[in-house]
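Bumping with the actual sequence this time:
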Amino acid sequence: MKRIFLQLLLITLMTNIYGQETNYFTWTSDHYRIISNESQARAEALGWKMEAALKLYNDHLHLDLAGLSSPLNVRIFRDKQTFNSYLEEIVAETQADFVMVSFSDPRKNELVCFDTPGKKFNTSLLHQGFMQYLKALAPDTPMWLRTGLAAYLENAAYNPDERRFVWKANLAWLETLQKIIAGEKSSHRLGITELTSLSQEAASFRLESFYAQAWGLVHFLIQSPEKKYNRIIWDAVAAINSNTSMVNRKSFSWVPAAGLKEDFEVFILSLKTFNTLIQEGKDYYSAGEYSQAATSFLGAMELNRDNNKPYYYLGLIHYAQKEYDQAEKHYKAALNLDIDPALINYALGVNSFSAKKYSEAEEYLIKAREYDPAVYTEKVESLLKRLKILK
């Protein structure tokens, strides 16, 4: 009787699991199985994005995808609440971000995600998706290499029309790392030998500094103009199925440690964040050094093409140099990126006034006054009076 009861209980549990799974929408690609609680379209869209992510990963590591014995599972929830409800059911805990869930049968391992607005979704997806990729194909990858590469790749931008990720430099850890190198956080500093041999447990006690230094080392080894340093990262990648000491021996042993340390630190300290470049450009602009200012703003634009500041300040530079068509082009680009409409319409009005496009100037100036009468009424009225005389 007891045996019959257990069999009935097992059948009931399996039926419940199957019933719950049928409430999801599933889409399978060459390398992924996507499970969504929202819609079939959401599952398919995420599937194409994961295939694009896989191509980004493998363009850097060139692992044998034939090593995937089954599709990688990715489960996506419509919100964080249902995400955590699911985690509480299967692992009795909640998470703040996407998480890899492992089972005794590796074929059931899954990356569990939830929809979140803006750039954060792709960042978390690329980072944790990379960890899933390595766990399936190269589980013995050293901690510094998998963490550093994940951070190096996670800022890539997705092009849905082309279904591909385009790599973009991730400088989120740069200021932290520069402070460590400069001695402001000297207690957090790790030598390269210590960094590359650190275990996961040891890294967990100093996560922020470890992440910053692991990212920095990988970024340096890939982006350095010195081919000897590029070779280190590719030697490390080639040896990732070996143990940590083997990876380090094959990759770093032929490069003098002192020279590597010095060149790494010089390279990292030479990098500039978006905010640093904007401030640098503003300082040059205020000093009338327009060429240097433009270089700084163009550098900032390369790091973040979705921010209006570089476009606006480039507009100011072209205006100061009486290049009114170029100024208008950059002002309008800024206008499409959520800049203060009163500010930019006033700038366009002044630019058109100087270019002797008086009708356009009048339209822009009136718009500026309408958007923010408290700030622009007096300024606009003065220019409108002059326009009446000139028209």
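The tokens above came from a reply further down the thread. Strands lie at 25-28, 32-36, 72-77, 99-101, 110-114, 157-159, 164-166.
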